Amino acid sequence: YDGNPFYPTPAALPKLCRQHGVKFFGISAKYIDAVRKAVERDPELLSQLNMDQVKTIASTGSPLVPENFDFLYSHWPHICVSSISGGTDIVSTFMLGNLDGVVRRGQIQCRGLGMAVEVWDDSGRPVQPGVTGELVCMYRAAYFSSDFGPNVWYHGDFCALYSEGGLAVFGRSDATLNPGGVRIGTADIYKVVEHMSE
User: Fold this and answer.
1) What is the full DSSP assignment across 28-56?
2) Which of 30, 31, 106, 150 has its CA 20 to 30 A from that of 61?
3) pLDDT tens across 97-124, in order?
4) β-bridge partners, 118
5) What is the DSSP letter of 126?
6) Secondary structure of residue 2 in the 3-state scheme
7) Architecture of the 1-83 domain
8) Please, how many CA atoms are within 13 Å of residue 35, restricted to the half-sphere of its CB?
9) 156 in helix, strand or coil?
10) Which domain of life is it from (predicted)?
11) Of all helices (H) and strands (E), which one includes residue 96?
12) What topology does CATH give the domain 98-198?
């Protein structure tokens, strides 16, 4: 679908979900953010967003910010929020939700089954839990090449892996500025820009 997901109203996609009995609703993090902001501007819109039959929302495309976890769970606590992150070039997900696991605000629940995902520093060494670094995935030799060496898929995401198994993606590392050793990614820039008046 290439059109405006808010046409003819911001309730258009939830209405389709209800009409067709959708249980698993895959949507972009940006859409969830836009719905939250639309509800903040017009609280009566919430009554049109009937998501009672939806069991899981899979969020992808960009990091789902903690405020959007709060928004979803404050209005639809029965829904499992399952953020996912992967890549078209690998035709898979590196990290995804797990219906048996705990959903933590701002985190993706676990690594994908069979995905040897790690977070490394710029020297190619794994970082400690909770420390941010580059998302990499170990694999057998193939046609891929990487700055981190053979058998390492470097995806270009800036993320952290937590001791309980959750992960957080903060933005693209290949769009990250590094003035004076302080990393500033697109997620940091968007967070400031979105709070500015137009």
Assistant:
1) EHHHHHHHHHHHHH-GGGGGG---TT--E
2) 150
3) 888 888 888 888 999 988 888 999 888 8
4) 136
5) B
6) coil
7) 3-Layer(aba) Sandwich (3.40)
8) 27
9) strand
10) Eukaryota
11) strand 92-96
12) Luciferase; domain 3 (2.30.38)
Contact 29, 59 (CB under 8 A): yes
Q: Taking the CA atoms of 88, 2, 25 and 186 in sequence, report the sign of the dihedral they define.
A: positive
| 3-state DSSP assignment of residue 24 | strand
Domains of the chain, residue spans? 1-83, 98-198
The residue type of 6 is F
Task: Note the pLDDT tens digit of each residue in 123-163.
Answer: 889 999 999 888 888 776 655 555 556 666 667 777 888 88
Nearest to 134 by CA among 149, 142, 124, 144: 124
Cβ(108)–Cβ(97) below 8 Å: yes
State how far the Cα of 89 lies from the Cα of 153, in Å rounded to an integer: 11
26, two tokens: 């895959």
**Helix (H, G, I), strand (E, B), or coil: what is residue 68?**
helix
